[in-house]
Amino acid sequence: MFFQDDNREKGKNSSGIETIRSFIQLAAQKKINGVLCTAWDDKSPHMENYWRGFIASAEYCWSPNGRTLAEYDTAWLQREFGLSMPDYQSFNNQLRKGSVLWFEAFYRNGNCFSEGNELQSMAQLEHWLKPTAGMEKRQFDYTTKLIELPDLNAPGSWSIKYKDRLERSIIEINNNKVLLEKLIELQNTSKRNWFFWALSKALYNLQSTVPHILLALKQSDSANNIQQKVGIKNVNNVVKEFHLRWADLQAVYCQTICISYQVSYVPDRYFHNASQRDDLSWMI
User: Fold this and answer.
1) Which residues pair with 146 in a beta bridge?
2) Domain end call among 46, 61, 92
3) Which of 70, 92, 114 is the last residue of a domain?
4) pLDDT of residue 9
5) Alpha-carbon distance values, 50 to 40, 250, 256, 271 (Å)
6) DSSP notation for the chain
7) What's the pLDDT score for residue 105?
8) Which of 58, 68, 211, 243 counts the highest number of beta carbons within 10 A?
9) pLDDT below 70 — which residues of the chain?
10) Is the torsion defined by CA of 145, 273, 236, 168 positive or negative?
């Protein structure tokens, strides 16, 4: 959703750029006359998140064996923003790790796009399937999909069960200050297209509430009554912060796209995430 990765192979970390280049190099070897670079809306990210890949497609179509991936990022940053930043891939990958936690944090199994975890009344996300009449009225019990809250009668058991997510949360929180400061710096120093960084910052701020929520829940998962109450208070505080960041993200989105239907809008007949909600609520 957030820091887009079209490359789904394990171990790859180039946010789709490596896949784009290798595919085009193969096409050049086979003397294919043209290449079409597509972008799927499964996660319906903002269009700004796609441009790095689209431009890479043009770059390597012209010169399949030209710049390295690092050289491409250097040129992209200079042309798009008038910036110089060493090892942009590493920075982008760190942002993406927070996105992965965002997708997975609150689901018992898989993530929000796994089969069975989709939005309420949207069991047919595949665009090639025709919608079923009445599906939009179907009620969905999310308690069977989402992780449970800590059991106050069995303190500590929740923290043991979700130990891996809590450890990932600590890593993300430790990285938060450095990454956010870098996003602010990039926005302030860009000679053009500062909106890309404003959007990135708003997305990052929203997704960074997830580790704070998980760690506040851990704090409430205690046999100590005082610590338990402090944890519950912190959960409420983080949820309030989430709503503030959610409002900020919507304000940033509104600068470039409409986030609600126009009077004459005809909704998509298929079950795509964004088109099934008259706002941005499909994100959360």
Assistant:
1) 107
2) 92
3) 92
4) 41
5) 10, 19, 15, 21
6) --S-----STT--STTHHHHHHHHHHHHHTT-S--------SS---GGGGHHHHHHHHHHHH-TTSS-HHHHHHHHHHHHHS---TTHHHHHHHHHHHHHHHHHTTBSSS-TTSTT-SPTT-----TTSPPPTTGGG----GGGTBPPPP-TTSTTHHHHHTHHHHHHHHHHHHHHHHHHHHHHHHHHH-SS-THHHHHHHHHHHHHTHHHHHHHHHHHHS-S-HHHHHHHHHHHHHHHHHHHHHHHHHHHHHTTTS--S--TT----SS--TGGGSSSSGGG-
7) 94
8) 211
9) 1-15, 40-44, 118-140, 267-278
10) positive
**105: Cβ contacts below 8 Å, ≥ 6 apart:** 165, 169, 210, 211, 213, 214
pLDDT of residue 177: 92
Chain centre distance of CA 279 = 17
Residue length, the chain?
284
Domain that holds residue 40: 17-92
Report the candidate in 34, 10, 7 with the shortest Cα–Cα distance to residue 22: 7
Total number of domains constituting the chain = 2
Q: Using the Cα atoms of residue 248, residue 250, residue 254 and residue 255 in order, give the sign of their dihedral.
A: positive
- Residue 125 corresponds to which tokens in the numbers above? 């996300």
Instruction: Copy the structure tokens of residue 221.
Output: 């998962």
Identify the pLDDT of residue 282.
Answer: 74
CA distance 248 to 233: 23
Clarify whether residues 81 and 171 are in a common domain: no
